[in-house]
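Practice problem. Given the sequence and the SMILES for zinc ion, write out the predicted structure.
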Amino acid sequence: MKTSIQIGKIIGIPIRLHITFLLILPVFALVFASGPAPYGFAEVGSTVIRYAFGTLTAVALFACVLLHELGHSYVAMKYGTKIRSITLLLFGGVATMEEIPRDPKIESKMAISGPGVSFVLGIAFLLIYLLLEPIWGNSPVTRLVYVLGSMNIILCGFNLLPAFPMDGGRILRAHLARQMPYVEATHKAAYIGKAFAFAMGIFGFLVVSPILILIAFFVYIGASEEEKTTEITVTLEGVKVRDIMTKNVISVPPTTTVSELVELMFKEKHMGYPVVDDKLRGVVTFSDVRKVSLEQRSKTLVSEIMAKKIISVAPEDDAIKALRIMSQRNIGRVPVMESGVIAGIISRTDLIRSIQLLQE
Ligand SMILES: [Zn+2]
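Answer key:
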């Protein structure tokens, strides 16, 4: 399902708007248009101007959030990390990166750059406000500049809370990682992050702030997820695809019928097969089979239902790369190719098994 749309590219990074962002933007515009001073335009006489400035404030605020994310991304790119995209969603932005460098120095620089951008923006807007206020007084423009100034300072401060995986929490982990193993530092930072999320949730409940409760919820989930990912990444360190792939690959020709394939699945107990004639043509899995009705299975060929877009790995690739491909594309197995020939197949099961063995 497509949940976000791309609106453009900045320094080569695709900028996307998430569906939740498109829903929340009018809400923000409305809140600013009808809110009291100094954060709203409620007492501005003209309805048109009120709503125009409400919308402008909301859009400008999200532009500032985007700049915050670009701050993170710029530093990450400087250290060679690929940024796949930046997505604006419900309350903020997310930069999707290929792999966050596991060097505490780089990580803290990356984490601080976002709040740094927000801080500079905040100070700049507040200075402009100080210049404008004596001339234009309480005009909508001065109000807009004031809101952007103070919001950016709040954004900076809030993100610096040591609640992993928020920016402050990342800085904390980087700091801890200089004194202890990376996984342990992550556990500690995630523990503190979860405690913060818990406190934030309770506070949000007491002051009846649904936004705070939601943020607390996301921080909690985020902390647990990243803790898990880090653990797996560190465990698989140094493990190559060659070490854990299944070597004797059973493949099927494209002319196999779906019912023949089902039989093979029962016999071999594998749920996915490469489709090969003179070369690799695709991968067919049980979920492809399920899309074909029972009566159609003897008349349908695997070549009609297989996934043709093949993403493969090389035997010398890191096992973690295969895992990343699987989770990004939501697939269960990746063929392993060596000089144009299929050398094996690596599945999620292979990976999970080796993670379990390595963690013993
Ligand atoms: Zn940030």
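Check your answer against the key. The CA atoms of residues 209 and 326 lie 38 Å apart.
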